[in-house]
Amino acid sequence: MNGESWQRRCLVDLFQPDHVVKICAPMVRYSKLAFRSLVRKYDCELCFTPMIIASAFLKSGKARDSEFTTSDVDRPLVVQFAANRAQDLAEAACIVSPFADGVDLNCGCPQRWAMAEGYGACLINKPDLVQDMVRQVRNQVECPNFSVSIKIRIHKDLAKTVDLCRQVEAAGISWITVHGRATEERHQPVHYDAIKIIKENVNIPVVANGDVRSNKDVHFVHQQTGIDGVMAARGLLANPAMFAGYEETPLQCVRDWVDIALEHGTPFTCFHHHLMYMLERITSKQEKKIFNVLSSTSAVIDYLSDNYDFQQPQYRLYLSSLGLFSPATSPVSSTKMTLQWVAVASFLYAEIGFVLFLCLPFISPRRWFKIFNFRLWEKIASYWNRAFLTIIVVLVVLFFDAIREVRKYSMTQGIGKDEKLLPNMYDHLNMKLFRAQRNLYISGFSLFLWLVLRRMITLVSELATAMEENEALKVQADNTNDAAKKYMEENEELKKALHRGKDNGNKKLEEENDQLIKEIERLKAELKRTTEALEKSQIDMASIKKQCDGLTREYDRLLQEHDKMLSLVDKHDKKNE
């Protein structure tokens, strides 16, 4: 069923006995309007938008315009929201209800950031909240045919999952999509037995999700579980025509994607990534290397035109009408530089000119130093270091980006023109490599000259300072020489005066010396006489001393005799009495 024949009615009517509804899963960045339009052409019956954060959707008109786009033929359509508050989900559902046929609550996203915010798979452990969300949407959306669904993962204890499904069924859910893995599982096999048990325990449609990569998988899952629909994600990315029975992506599907993407103005990254997925199974490893490095819509069109018989003039005419193609911007002939590299090249030329200007012989370092001391430079000097480091960081980033580009395009050098590739694509890759090498040289030389220039300015300033110091030393040396000459002249005059003084004073000195000699001789004679008299006096003194000693002994003897006589007199007097 396609969008052109769709009239708004309850989506539950899609689920009929013995019929498996084929659904395009919500895929971030991928299940947008252009891709939904493509899969609808190949028997996809129901499409989901990428997951939208309900709170951001309500707060920002910009978020609403960028995250949700649709058209009159984009039906039937379900908008998937991530929410952690019932009122947020209900208000978002009211906003999209005129433009979609239902909303889906994401209860299966296992990413950490989503679970940390209270979105995704953590909701399977909050059945009351999920039930309240379903009821709020039912109560606030006026359209009776507006569907409400949830997409869940299973618990390790399957009974909890069954209880959750029964609770939301009681709240009025339209259907349930079950991804047959637990929250912690990523690439493990899908538990189809769990999906079957859930289907057997509820009375609403159940959609199976997980590892549906071909139409055979659709029938296999239906037989294993008895589900009412299947939802595919990666399988549709690799083969958007999967539900139509194609085992590989048909070329017509690729052509349809190019037409639809150009019509919708799909950004190049999204346009290119979808083609990378579609061509993955039908291109060789070498072709992937070439196709995956294409960097413009016109380059992709050239590649597809020459390798897969696309009508190149038709697409070039369409690109020209959009302003995306002109002969001057052809991938092979274009040699224009991007604005950032024009700026870097201009900076390089300015550096070369300034270096040559610094090397001019008739401008001395002292003049440069005077120029650097202008007031303007003093004002700039406060920002100089920060500007210098900022430019170094920018040039280093551009240098490593150029290295990355050279390495990326050098990977294709082993592919020659004799390979099964379009000829101008080989030239295009060589041109890309040439540009990357050119950018590498420009950024490398700019960085080198910037460091050299900084060093040259420093050396010029130091040289000018040294020259000024040498000039000052030279002046000081000249002044010192003049003072030395003056001191030498004064010294000569002093020597002459000394010689004159010597001639006049020598005679007086000789006379005085003679007088002194005579006086010394007289004093020597007198000293001799004095010495002789002293010796004689010493001899006389010795004899006097001997006499004195004799007198002393005689005195002592007489004193003893006197004492004896006194004693005799005393004795005699006593007798007379």
**Which architecture name of the largest domain does CATH use?**
Alpha-Beta Barrel
Largest sheet: 8 strands, parallel, barrel
Spans of at least 5 consecutive residues whose pLDDT stays below 50 are 1-5, 321-335, 415-424
Q: Helix/strand/pairing class, anyone? A: alpha/beta
Helical percentage: 55-70%
Can you describe this structure?
The protein folds into 3 domains: 3-236, TIM Barrel, CATH 3.20.20.70; 339-475, no CATH class; 524-570. The longest helix is centred in the last third of the chain and has 154 residues, at 423-576. The termini are far apart. The chain is α/β, with parallel strands linked by helices and 577 residues long. It has helices at 33-40, 54-59, 61-67, 86-96, 112-116, 127-140, 158-171, 192-201, 215-225, 234-238, 251-264, 268-279, 285-291, 297-308, 312-322, 339-358, 365-372, 375-410, 423-576, and strands at 21-24, 46-48, 52-53, 77-82, 102-107, 147-154, 175-182, 206-209, 229-232. Strands 1-2-4-5-6-7-8-9 form an 8-stranded parallel beta barrel, surrounded by 6 helices. The model is unreliable at 1-5, 321-335 and 415-424 (pLDDT under 50). Helix 7 links the parallel strand 6 and strand 7. Helix 4 runs parallel beside helix 6 and helix 17 (365-372) packs across helix 19. 29% of the residues are buried. The protein is elongated, with a radius of gyration of 58 Å. The chain is built from 19 helices and 9 strands.
Could you outline the blueprint of secondary structure elements for this entry?
Layout: E1 21-24, H1 33-40, E2 46-48, E3 52-53, H2 54-59, H3 61-67, E4 77-82, H4 86-96, E5 102-107, H5 112-116, H6 127-140, E6 147-154, H7 158-171, E7 175-182, H8 192-201, E8 206-209, H9 215-225, E9 229-232, H10 234-238, H11 251-264, H12 268-279, H13 285-291, H14 297-308, H15 312-322, H16 339-358, H17 365-372, H18 375-410, H19 423-576
Parallel strand pairs: 1-2, 1-9, 2-4, 3-4, 4-5, 5-6, 6-7, 7-8, 8-9
Helix pairs in contact: 1-11, 4-6, 6-7, 7-8, 11-12, 14-15, 16-19, 17-19, 18-19
